[in-house]
Amino acid sequence: MRTAKQAHPARAALTKAIESKVERMDMAGLLELAKVLKVAVPAAAKAIRGRERKPNASLAAHDSKVLQGSGIGPVVSAAEGGRLLDAITVDDESADWLESDLVGAGELVERLSISRGTLDNWRKANKVIALRKGLRNFLYPLRQFERRRPIEGLDVIASLFTSPEETWEWLVASNRMTDGKPPIDKLRDGDFSLVKSAADGAFDYA
Q1: What is the C-alpha separation between 52 and 102, in angstroms, rounded?
Q2: Burial 116-143 (b: 16+ CB within 10 A, else e)
Q3: Which pTM does this prediction carry?
Q4: Nearest 5°: phi and psi at 91?
Q5: Is the pLDDT of residue 53 over 60?
Q6: Hey, how many other C-beta atoms are within 10 angstroms of the C-beta on 174?
Q7: For 82-117, how does the pLDDT look when each residue is reduced to its tens digit (9 = 90+)?
Q8: How far apart are CA 158 and CA 32, in angstroms?
Q9: Are the beta carbons of 143 and 101 closer than 8 angstroms?
C-alpha cells in the first residue's frame, strides 16, 4: 500500500510533463503521435492537417539545384602548367621594395662617407626612408640616395603616407601617374612635381 501511494505523485508528475509536451506539438506531430499510439484521429483534425501550408515546390526545386563545374580539365605536364600560369599571372610589383638593396646604418655611413649623427638627423627629420628592423635597428634602401645625400623632395613625399614601409612600397611600384615608372625613379630624375601630384592622389579612391 505504501509503495502505491509513493508511486502516485511520480505518476502525476510524469503525466503532467507529457501533457505539457503534447500541448506544444504542432498538428503534424500530434498526428504522428496518434499513429504511434494507435489513437483514432477525428475527421476535423485530418481536415486541419490538409489545409496546412505545403512547401513551395518551385522554391524547393531552386534550393536543390547544385552548381556543377566542368571538372579539373586535361592533365598537362609541369612545363606546360608553368607556361599556362605565366600567361594568367600578373607580377606584383608592390613587393619590389623587398628586393631593393637594403643596408644597415653602419654600412650606409661607410658607403656615403657620412657620420652616424648625420644619418640619425636625416632619419629623425624624415628625410630618408628607414625601415624598422627589430626594436632599435633600421634598414635603409640605397635607391633613395643620390650623390651621398637623400633624393630631394623625399621628405615631402614621405609625409603623405602613414609609415616608411608604405611610403617605400608606393615609391618602388610602377605607377600610371608617373608615366608607368616607379615614382622613385622619377624623383631621382628631378621630376618632383609629377611625383608629388601622384602621391597626393594616391588615396583618392581608397
Answers
A1: 75
A2: eeebeebbeebbbbbbeeeeeebbbbeb
A3: 0.51
A4: -65, 135
A5: no
A6: 15
A7: 666 656 554 444 444 444 589 999 999 999 999 999
A8: 75
A9: yes
